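The material for today's practical consists of a large collection of protein records. Read left to right, the backbone structure tokens trace the chain's path through space. An example says more than a description, so a record of this kind follows:
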Amino acid sequence: MLKILIYEHACGGGLAEGVVSPGILSEGFGMLRLCVADLKAAGHEVLVILDAELARFNPPIEADIIPVFSFKEAQQAILKTCVNIDAAYIIAPETGGVLHALVKLLEQNGVPTLNSHSSAIQAVSNKFNLYRILETKVGDKVKVPKTIQVDNAVQGVRECVIDGLGLPVVVKPVDGVGCGGLSFVEEVSQMEGAVERIATEFASETFVVQEFLKGEAVSVSLLCTGMQSLPVSLNKQNVILSTPKGVSGYMGGVVPFDHEMQQEAFKAAEAVVNCFSGLRGYVGVDLILTDMGPVVVDVNPRLTTSFIGLSCVGGCNFADAIVNAALKNNLPSKVFFSGRCVCFSKMETPKVDIELLDILYGIPELVSPPFPVQDSQRGCALISSIEGNSLERAHHLLEEAKKHLLNIMM
């Protein structure tokens, strides 16, 4: 049995700074809740750093809670607990170097982590650098989208023409996660709005412009030891791509996802991960399944939302498998599923009263309740459904769960 500290940024620091959207909070809490449950089921003792505002809602997390009132206080709590834990797990975005900095802080204090090594996190966090490395190391095995890195809108439009990207294109931050700051640009006139969004949301003048690829958005979840990797599932991603006037976003997905290109996607993801020494524990690789085959668009050196599906229908305790991979260099001999799939989706809701939360906690399909985030007039829940007969049936059950939730809230 290990004593493990978990820090999830949206729930343990970002919310305290007042910058977390209800949608991001729902994903973060869902990952945190199921990771804690799996580690507890494996016999580990778990400590969780939790924003005091969130803690007052008495959220359904079976762990010892360390309340904090700011991100600075969260960092201090991490340092304070270093001497009393066996390992730590940081669930945080690469954006702004947050994940890299927190993992490096733990490494400097001699604390084993379930994360990738800080040097590996840094190596894959910048999307433009990632593509250049992949083109050099595995360009004959792995396709990546045509991409340019630019510093302003005028140059961006010019480079799009010079490099032959054409339109439409996708404009996004160099170190964004999910669909944060991402815009789908169909006309040159939209480029300025896309760049302004990145500058506003990420305080960055550097961004990437990338060819738009038609196909199925998926991810591959892998378990890694730092030297070896094992693809464990192909996951469907439900993504909304919007012009700068709208909001792009990751809405949910399906785990596992049955597709004829599964083995090709597995081989591509494994080839990518094996390029970087030090990727450990859980790693997610995002791809587009196109007519040309799988195209790699991102590497996530951290826990991703697809873990929620793995936790629900995986044939083993995946959180404990992360412990074994990261700390013991031990990968499962094989990975199997329960014969079922899980569909999960974010769902915008009215803002709820605190008194209603206790009732919502009892809904089995509710992975993350719509916490009443300060300064937001809407909430966001994360709903799941599990079905063994068909994907169509799972989608139907998901819609029924959404209706049930709304009926309770109205």
Observations:
- The chain has a mean pLDDT of 91.
- The chain has 14 helices and 16 strands.
- Residues 22-41 form the longest helix (20 residues).
